[in-house]
Please model this.
Amino acid sequence: MSKKLLFLYPVEEYWVNNFPFRNERSIKKLETTIDLRYRQKGYEIYFATFRNRDVFQLQLQPTDHVIRVETEFFEGFKYPNPEQLLNQLGDTERLVICGFHLPDCVVRMAQGAVDMKFDTLVDVELTENFAYRSSKFYFNPEEYNFANIFVDGMHDIHKYSPPSLYRMKEYEKEFYHLKDFTPTITEEDVEIHEQDQETLFMEFSSPR
Model:
């Protein structure tokens, strides 16, 4: 059995409408992260797309795979069948799921994979939120650490929106594997970094 990364639905419409700051630099950074974090560590890379859409924007490598769901793009709100897609992967030791869109298709596919007894992990950085996530001071293209994202989120909730604490319950789902990660940052680190960024912004924007 092999380890596999499944990148969902990299089609033109999603790149154009849902990937902020889409430019050559950000796409290259995404491709490099996929390569360093997964391809070079023995993961087979699978790109899943719709029956009537090709993979857009990303440069595929000769060892990569393209698989298709039975659903066509623009078929209303019909979700692809997880079983139909996941059965195309064959025997899998570990499955990492990412792509478009994190709160919808990615988590739906991940839950379907868990239900089918796949050892499943969602990489929340390799989604439509990549530009934002990769700008964080703790981002590491070679290693995914969900615990740092959790710490960052808790800082924001404690500082800006305490009533929203319930939203973090989402991260307790099995496919995030929160307990398998060890944070390398603290909420204090996040606060210090934010203050430093604010200082730099004020210095840059002040009249000279």
About this structure: The chain has a mean pLDDT of 91. Residues 145-208 form one domain.
